[in-house]
């Protein structure tokens, strides 16, 4: 069983990053400004996108793990 890796995002609550298969970060132009976007592919193949402060929180959590 994998160890849970919880990340608290401002808008989506807690996200368990232990089941991430792939993560992609990119700056996108959204609502008249550049924002960070994060696409996560989960271990079951589902995809989920996070924007702005949620994406930044995930990036910070993953950076702490290194």
Give the topology, please.
Elements: E1 6-9, E2 13-16, E3 20-30, E4 33-42, E5 47-51, H1 52-65
Antiparallel strand pairs: 1-2, 3-4, 4-5
Characterise this structure.
Helix content is 21%, strand content 52%. It is α+β, with helices and mostly antiparallel strands and 66 residues long. It has one helix spanning 52-65, and strands spanning 6-9, 13-16, 20-30, 33-42, 47-51. It is built from one helix and five strands; from the N terminus they run βββββα.
Give the tags.
66 residues, alpha+beta, two-stranded antiparallel sheet
Helix/strand/pairing class, anyone?
A: alpha+beta
Give the helix proportion (percent range). Answer: 10-25%
Number of strands: 5
Shape: globular
Write down the Rg.
12 Å
**Secondary-structure element pattern, one letter each:** EEEEEH
Average pLDDT, all residues: 95
Q: Total number of helical segments?
A: 1
Read across the widest sheet, the strand sequence of neighbours is 3-4-5
**Mind describing the biggest β-sheet?**
3 strands, antiparallel
User: What portion of the residues fall into strands of 2 or more residues?
Assistant: over 45%
Concise synopsis of the structure shown:
The chain is 21% helix and 52% strand. With 66 residues, the protein is an alpha+beta fold. The strands form two sheets. The protein has a three-stranded antiparallel sheet with strand order 3-4-5, with helices on one face.
């Amino acid at each position: 069983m994998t160890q849970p890796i919880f990340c608290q995002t401002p808008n989506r609550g807690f996200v368990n990053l232990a089941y991430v298969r792939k993560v992609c970060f990119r700056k996108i132009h959204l609502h008249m400004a550049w924002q960070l976007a994060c696409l996560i592919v989960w271990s079951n193949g589902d995809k989920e996108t996070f924007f702005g402060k949620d994406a930044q929180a995930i990036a910070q959590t993953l950076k702490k793990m290194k």
